[in-house]
Design a protein that fits this description.
By secondary structure, the chain is α+β, with helices and mostly antiparallel strands. The protein has one domain. It is built from two helices and five strands; from the N terminus they run E-H-E-E-E-H-E. The radius of gyration is 12 Å and the shape is globular. The two termini are 25 Å apart.
Length: 103
């Protein structure tokens, strides 16, 4: 099932989106595309409306490298570290990359 509402619990990624108007984000599950909204955590209030576009499936940190400069992190390795921190049951980078634009 595709999730609704995209949560940005990581401050750096959320701030990048709010400041620059766009961000690349990694998700372990598929997310609905098109118009949506974001918050800063489960059951939290709406922050802003967004448009979500699917970019590609990602396997391994190397797949994040071309997008790292627009993720809110200084490198793909720093981004990977945060992905594992937010998803402690995840054993390898395998998921979906999305491009999110603030509306």
């Amino acid at each position: 099932m595709k999730k609704m509402v995209m949560s940005f619990s990581n401050t750096r990624a959320r701030q990048f989106l709010l400041e620059y108007g766009h961000v690349y984000t990694f998700r372990t599950h598929k997310h609905k595309l098109g118009k949506d909204w974001i918050n800063d955590g489960r059951c939290r209030p709406k922050i802003c409306d967004v448009e979500i576009q699917f970019v590609k499936e990602v396997t391994g940190t190397i797949g994040l490298v071309p997008y790292a400069d627009k993720s809110g992190f200084s490198s793909a390795w720093e981004w990977t570290h945060e992905i594992f921190k937010l998803n402690p049951k995840l054993r390898k980078i395998k998921g979906y990359l999305y491009y999110v634009v603030k509306k």
